[in-house]
Each structure stands twice: as structure tokens, then as C-alpha cells.
Amino acid sequence: MLWGLSPALDLLSEYEKVNTLFGKKIINILLIGSTDGRHILKTISALKRHSVDDCDVNFFVMDLATEFVARQLLLLTIALEPEDHLGIQEKARLWMEIYGNTLLRPVTAKYLMSKAVQLIHMVTNKNYQKKRLPLVDMDFVKYKEIDQLENIFKYWIRNRYSIAKIWDNKLRKSLGTRYDSREGVFDWDYNMKLHDIKGGTRVCAGEYKLWRKIGIAFTWLETEYSVGNPTLAVGIGSSGDNLYSHGYWGDMESGPFFAFGTDSEEKPMLEVRNEVNVRRATDITERNLQRMFHELEHGSPPSDLYTACIDLGLVMMKPGNVDLEREVILDYEPDPTPEDYSAIPVPNCKVFFLPGNAMDIFPKKAKNKEFFDMAFVAQNFYKFLNQDIMSMIKPCGCLVIETRKFVIGLERDAGCFGKEVRNKLREFGWEEVTKCHFRKDAHALFRKSSGESSSEKNMDEQDDTEAAKIDDDPCAMEQDLTESITEEYKQLNLEETRDKAASTSSELENSSFVCPKSTNLLEDEPNIKETEVISMTFQEDTDVHPKEDFKKRIEDVEDAFVDEKDGLKISGRENQSDLASSEVTRNAEERGQKAESGDHDHVN
């Protein structure tokens, strides 16, 4: 995975749910498969919110692919650029484009090439790296992996990555015969899968479908994306002087929206009008990144920020077409001179990148036993957990597991995944700190167990029930959708609606119903339909609001349409029985009783 499928966490806040930070001198955090550094940035930006002035916070990053290490180095470098070298708004947009877009603006592509040159200086010259990016420590990385990193950065500079064509070919292969109707497939996945996920509605339909079609997740007005993003290339290698890659191996169904785009500390960013998001996940991500970058440099969140994209969630933007045959190659030669300034300082923090085989080597070393205070494990890495890795976590430590809540296509596996995780960690002697619903929560928090609790047994039974429902019922997700809609209705203020309904009910009780002159009352079709519609409407209201006094008013309305002039009383319940009424009419015609008198039949 090139990006995480869960919101960024302040890991120190998660740690405080289990232990206190007071008196701690050092906290070692292990990150397995985080891939994008979002938890690192979120944690170091919030350091001032915790009492850790005299505490060293160390992050140890384990990733299997060297390309993921290279991307994290680049994203950390951008995030820690001083404000006098890169403005906060432009920094956020550069970070977002490189993070989640297949195509870049030409200015972003040039910036990427320039930073790739600086990254080559960093990985090949440790003294320069400690001066230019002191937060990072590369001492654990092997020389062979240093050479791979250098080749990756050179590949970024040459940038012959045809991501648009690669994306389209993978899309054709994954959709098969549905490729010609791919717009309908994207619409189905958005409305029937993403909308069923709590928080998934923050992503607007337009931005999700555009990303599914051409891989561009974050867009702004008056911008053109034409240069491939080489940081998404995987399997980069060299053959003589030639550099190559094995294409794109990343996510093509969920999207890069969930790290920073589903929630915000500024509630106006989450505003909804007429069931439409006022601001897109792109705008929420941009605002969250600006707040985080400001807090990184100044130690506190900003009082006010300017965001150019206002209310774009209400705008229907037509996505542009991408020419798959045309490759845009920039005629640009970056400056090879090393930069002479330093990144934003982050005191008492270090990020250690570990070698690719660290999961095999590190647990076997005695000095690493009970070394880490907490660990984070991505949802696709939990299968690598074993007793040796778990032994590196302190008995008083904690473990954060990413769930598959935002993994589109694996929603049927969510309940079974939760049961597998619990069973596996229970074998290692771990238990949940708080109950986690693996289909509704993005993370699960565990600690060393003192014995199996009844809550864990209940959660296992819940997982079994969920798995059974998913296997037996092809529409199992419908129940979750109904529950989410019910929760939204509970949050609505319906007092005004109830007052209006009561007023309407009182007016109808005091009014009269006048029947037109006809040989048969039941032939007056419009009046019958009007009565049925009113009856059905109020019946729905009584189902939603089952209060006795309100139900009594509605029942009175249904039964009290009275014709004062002719003394006719029409019952709402009998009006719904067309078959019985028509039978009465036929019997009256057969007997010929008062066929020409024009009298009305009396219906009780």
C-alpha cells in the first residue's frame, strides 16, 4: 500500500489510554507497514499538547519495500520545510499531490525532481543528512538498500513513468467486461459500498469517481495535471545505466482520502447542506495539513487559515480526459548543489528507518526484548505478527491494529478479520483496551492480558454473528445502512415537524369532508386516493414517532372525515378495502335498489 487506509493517529494519545506519560524519559514506538508517515507527522505536531518536554520520542519504521521508505523520506522532507522557503498553503498542496495523485502539475514535478537531488545527497552523505534533516536517522539501513534508494531517487529525476497508461491497463484487467460501463461500476461502489462506511460520506462522489477513473484524488480549480507521479512506481531497479520499474501495485478502489480527509477539529469543515457536503475530502485534507504544518513550526494550532477552495463540495466539476498515448516529459535540469538550510527542528524526536528484513532479525536480538512502549500494525501486516515480534513490546505497552473499515472490496471480510485478530493476539496474551467494532472503527487498541474477559467473549460472538450474516445474506450491508440512517434521524431536531403535524391534525379534525353527488361514493376516485395518501403519510410519521398522544391524533385524523351536510362518514380503514366496497356496489346494482334515485350508499 502506498498510503494508509485509516485516519492519522496521535500515537501518544493512544498510549495515554493505557499508561501515563508522566515521568517517562523515553518512549519507543514501532511502526509496521504504516507506509506514508502520517502517524509520525500527526504525533510530532501534537507534542506540545502532551507533557513530554523531558521525554525522548523515537519512531522505528519497518517496511518491506524500499520505495515506501523513499516516499516517507520525501513526505517528511516536504512537511518539515521552513515557512520562509515554502508557504503553508503551497506546502499542503504539494504534499497532497505527491501523496495521492497519479498526475502532477508541472510545478510540482519540478519541485519533486529538485528534492530527489537533495535526497540523494542525504542518503549518500550522513553528515549532510543530519544537518539537512536531523529528525531522520538512517544508521540501521544497509548499504545495499542505500544503493536502492539512490536508484529510486534517480528514477524520480528522469521521470519516464507512464502512470496514466498503466492505470488504465490495470483498470481494464480488474473490471474485465465491465470496463465499458466503468462509470456505473464507480457509481455503484460509491453509493453501495463507500456510503455504507461510517465517515465514507465525507468523500464527494465527483472526487471519488475521478480518482477511480484516472487516479487523481486531489484537485483545485484552474490547475492542470499532466506529468506522471514517479513516487507511485514500485519495483524500481537498474540494468546498466538504464532504470526501470514494475508499474503500479497500489490501491485502486479505496483511495488516499482517509488519512486526513474524514474528520476535522474545525466543525464548519464538516458542514452538510441538503444532504450534500459543503466541502470535499480534498478541502478537509488541505485544512488538516495546514493546521498540522503550522503546529509543527509554531507549536500551536493556527487561529485562522485561508483556504481558496470554499464550498466546492456543492460544485459539479466535469473531469478532464487524459491522453494515454501522450507522455509529458519536462525539459528541466534540477540544481545539483546541496541545500544549505535545515528543516524545522523537532526536539527530542527521532525517526529510525529499519532494514527490509528487520521483522526477521530484530526480534532475535536480546537487546530488543521488551524494548518498545507501543506498536502500530497495518491491516495487511497483521499476519506477520508472531510471538517473537510481540515479545519486543513491554508488558505495560500497547498495540494499535488498523482495521479494514475503509478497505473497499473486503467489507465481507471485516467480521472474520476482527475474529482472527482477537484470536491471534489472545494466543500471545493480549486483550482489547476498549471494545472495537471492526466494521465501524478504524483502529483497535490492545494491551497485555490478565485473563480473558467476558467482553472479549461477547465480541467474539458478535464477530461470529456478523460473519454468518455476511455469508448467508447477500444484502447484509443493508442492515448497517439502516442503522446509520436511524442514527442520523435521531440526531435531527424534529420538534418543529411534530408541532406542524399536530396543528394539521387539529385542523383536519375540525374540518368537514364534502362528498360530491354521485350514484356510488366509491366511484369518486380522487377523494379515495387523497384519503389513502393522507392515511399513509401519517402512518409513516407514527412509525417514526411512536408517542401515544401523537398516535392518537393521527388515528383521529384517519377516522374523522365527516360529511356534515349529508351525514356521511367515511372510514379511512374501510376506504383502503377496495374489494369489499366494490362487492357492496355490485350487490346494490343486482338488486336494483334505488338505481335511479341518486341516493348514496352509506359506508360505516
UniProtKB/TrEMBL annotation:
InterPro entries documented for this protein: DNAAF3 (IPR039304), DNAAF3_C (IPR028235), DUF4470 (IPR027974)
Pfam hit, one: DUF4471
Keyword Cytoplasm in record: yes
Domain of life: Eukaryota
Compartments where found: Dynein axonemal particle
Residue span of region Disordered: 449-469, 561-604
Start and end residues of each Dynein assembly factor 3 C-terminal domain: 137-433
Name this protein carries in UniProt: Dynein assembly factor 3, axonemal homolog
Organism of provenance: Nezara viridula (Southern green stink bug)
